UniProtKB/TrEMBL annotation:
Alphabetically ordered keywords of this record: FAD, Flavoprotein, Oxidoreductase
Protein name: Unannotated protein
InterPro entries per UniProt: FAD-oxidoreductase/Apoptosis (IPR050446), FAD/NAD-bd_sf (IPR036188), FAD/NAD-binding_dom (IPR023753), FAD/NAD-linked_Rdtase_dimer_sf (IPR016156), Reductase_C (IPR028202)
Gene3D superfamilies: 3.30.390.30, FAD/NAD(P)-binding domain (3.50.50.60)
Reductase C-terminal domain residues: 332-404
Xref: Pfam families: Pyr_redox_2, Reductase_C
TM stretches of this protein: none
Residues making up the signal peptide according to the UniProt record: none
All copies of domain FAD/NAD(P)-binding, residue ranges: 5-308
Metal-binding is among the record's keywords: no
GO cellular-component term (any): cytoplasm
Annotated GO MF terms: oxidoreductase activity, acting on NAD(P)H
Amino acid sequence: MSNPVVIVGASLAGMNAARTLRLEGHDGPIVVLDGDSHRPYDRPPLSKQILSGEWDPERIVLAIANEDLGLDMRLGVRATGLSLADRTVETISSDGTEATLAFDGLVIASGAAARRLPGSDGVAGVHVVRTLDDSMALRSDLEAGPGRVVVIGAGFIGSEVASACRKRGLEVTLVEAMPVPLERILGAEMGAVCGRVHVENGVDLRLGTGVDHLETVTESDGSQRVVGVALTDGTTVAAEVVVVGIGVSVNTGWLDGSGLDLENGVVCDNTLLAAPGVVAAGDIARYPSERFGEMLRVEHWEHAIAGGEAAARRLLAEKRGEPGAIFDPVPWFWSDQYDRKIQLAGRPAPTDDFAVVHGSTDEFRFVTLYGREGRLVGVLGMNRPRHVIQLRGLLETGSSFDDACAKAAEL
């Protein structure tokens, strides 16, 4: 290769792709672009240890960033366009310098951005948690000791933020538009259990209501600061800090007009190939899963590592004229909330059959299995890590739901 392999995104997926390229034989140049000026870092602690103040930012720098991989790291440089015909990426740096970068191979790992509440731009006290700068800005506001924090969205990020705020002794109201938290992922019954965890830890949980508008005051300099959240049920919650956790949007804007298939991410084949010489990995990659019979786009930590490695190997296989390996791992992640560790493997849906096979939901120590058309499709655990790890393997082997329930009874 005369031109470099270009990796867009110094994310967990992007950096693992870079590492795999080097360790598995690519000795040509590798350029890594990222609009974030910080050294590559781990994101899960942003809503946990960084936000709570337990860790300093230096602690979340990715270990890969300290390896001698001979990478051309261009931080503070954002990709703005892609030409498949010319095999070039358009870029702009933080100082406004524009450039064109030719590539022989491209890894798209530009991830996703946090969705923001309409009308919240520029309002002091309103935060999202996606980047290190986001987390540190929110941490600074929390350290000032606000009277009440309102978290909008009781998904995993919102729940972790609520937990971190309660750990600081702050009063928290958690607002969720759905009747129960996490219903779209875990179903109504298990979502309700997660909701009770918040209530048990002193959170004011408001369900089945959304945000009508933010209430603000005008400061002496003309800026706006949040003072409350008006909800669609007609109530208003006072707030000095508001955290918005309503999901993400994938960073595909720079790929508009490129010719890639962009539908809820970068659409790839089952080897993560999006076009000749172009692969995608991490939050942005959408690929067909034979295991679950659907197109998947997975935002989990371990999935980003596996995807980055697989995408790099796909480029190397293409260079050798070999077919790529099928990418179809079992999705897997965890969430630390209060004194509970929630772990989820697989791809459950609200309409799945389910069975609590270990422990008690009343004690918040249990394992639940999910089944669909007779197959095991998910394993959920709360403070049962050993059992979840053991049962997770049954997803890999394609166990039936009944056999998985029987196996769980033996543990």
